[in-house]
Amino acid sequence: MSHLVSIDNVDMRYGGASGTLAVSGLTMRVDKGEFAAVVGPSGCGKSTLMKLVTGLHIPQTGVVIVGGQQVTKPVSIVGMAFQNPTMLPWRTTLENILLPLEIVERHRHRLRAHKREYVEKAEQLLEIVGLRGFGSKFPWQLSGGMQQRANLCRALIHEPELLMLDEPFGALDAFTREELWCVIRDLHAAQGVTIILVTHDLREAVFLADTIFVMSARPGRILKEHRVPFERPRDLDVMYQSAFNDMVHALHGEIAKARVVA
Amino acid sequence: MSAMTDTATQAKAAAKPLMARINWVKAAPWLYTLALFALWELLVMALDMPPTILPAPSNVFAAIAKYWSPIWKNSLQTLYTTTMGFAIAVVAGLAIGLFIGWSKTIYAGLYPLMIGFNAIPKVALVPILVIWFGIGTVPAVLTAFLISFFPIVVNVATGLATIEPETEDVLRALGAKKMDIMLKVGIPRSMPYFFGSLKVAITLAFVGSVVSETVASNYGLGNMMSSAQSQFNVPLVFAGLLMLAVEGIAMYALMAWIERRMTGWAHRSTMAQ
Ligand SMILES: Nc1ncnc2c1ncn2[C@@H]1O[C@H](COP(=O)(O)OP(=O)(O)O)[C@@H](O)[C@H]1O
Ligand SMILES: [Mg+2]
């Protein structure tokens, strides 16, 4: 009933009729407030899925519905963050975070008059992700992990209902990654935002998500949907439980099998 | 090189405090220039060159002093035609660069044309410009413009055409139009390329204006040098060359300064690598 995202039997082909069929027969639903993770072999169409949900690509067949409306153009209730933080180097971190407000229709006309209010909100977000006082620094003065934190703030500044994360922690070292898992976990708990996380890190998926979707090799479709049983709030210690490891193990097996089939 | 200068500085610091206070890296360009002139002077003396083949620097400086009034007038004229042509090149280059970088199709269609145009030696265009505009200032300005606008166009267009697809996706997902992406990302991003290209462009503009003045004008350093040459006044030819070098260095330094002032961020961020 309260699906925020529903994808029905979607085919997406790149580059005309004879091009690459990236996903085929893709069907999945994500509830409001849910944390969903999508895992699958590389090249299976995970990024394509992100672009279908945000309206950057329109599928040839099937429908994508986000927030009760069929997606036919980019949907601005979505925030996005990629592996590559893509901060603009000529803007300070704070100005980078405010960038979406200069674009999104319902904010761009208010921005000038309500600058104070927006700056305060950006600073609140910076504090939540542990970057208090770094707003005036330029992105190249921040470490990779700090840039990715700022990137999350930018994805959240316009209060999106849906946050799409495409392998956001892929380029970070193990410790920084775990710190950012906790940041995301707390953001999800505090803001009530729906999150779809694409990742190849199965421990990350199991630690963070309520639901894990396993995709087949290209053309991608959903092979299996898992509920993650662990209680929230989850602590990093949960990763040392045997049930956690069993789940990671099972997922690993499924993806290995999906790859072999391809 | 700076390490060598450092040890030299330290060695002298013990003996003479005065020598230690000189910034050798800063002084180096002047010292090297002086050394070049000294070497040149010695070479002319040693080989006993006649001034009609290679005049000594002292000879050239004497010519500058002697003909100061025409040299000064012609230098100003050349500086004027060059900066005029350069200014038009900046405006037109920026506009055409933005236009070409706007879409992949325009980029693909116009790029070969631009390459073809750039391959034409601009001196070959001077006769055409003379037919259209007569001899004098106008063809010199236009030649300076034609020769210097290409690097500006290419750099601006490249800056626009190489926006990271992820950045574009993030903005498009928020509902950004092409215009938003250009204003927020494309144009600021291409500014380091643009300001970087000015140094190349100003140097080329001098080439264009002097070539045109040499063959089709009654004013300017190019014209002065070609008439001096026909009178075998070789020291004056070299005086003209020296003035051109001075103007070229001054304008280059100005462009480098503007570049540093306008796009300091690019020198610190990864984009400059
Ligand atoms: N813009 C594009 N044009 C053509 N083919 C593409 C494009 N983007 C992705 N593909 C192809 O679609 C398939 C799925 O890509 P993608 O969704 O990026 O996979 P993943 O993110 O799971 O690694 C790949 O085979 C890729 O080569
Ligand atoms: Mg991907």
UniProtKB/TrEMBL annotation, chain B:
Q: Name one GO cellular component term.
A: plasma membrane
Q: Which SUPFAM superfamilies match?
A: MetI-like
TM spans, by residue?
78-101, 113-135, 141-163, 192-212, 232-258
Q: Where primarily located?
A: membrane
ABC transmembrane type-1 domain: from which residue to which, for each copy?
Answer: 75-255
Membrane topology category: Multi-pass membrane protein
Q: Which family does it belong to?
A: Belongs to the binding-protein-dependent transport system permease family.
* GO BP: transmembrane transport
Give the protein name, as stated in the record.
Answer: ABC transporter permease
Q: Which UniProt keywords apply?
A: Cell membrane, Membrane, Transmembrane, Transmembrane helix, Transport
Write out the annotated subcellular location: Cell membrane
Q: Which Pfam families match?
A: BPD_transp_1 (PF00528)
Q: Does the keyword Transferase apply?
A: no
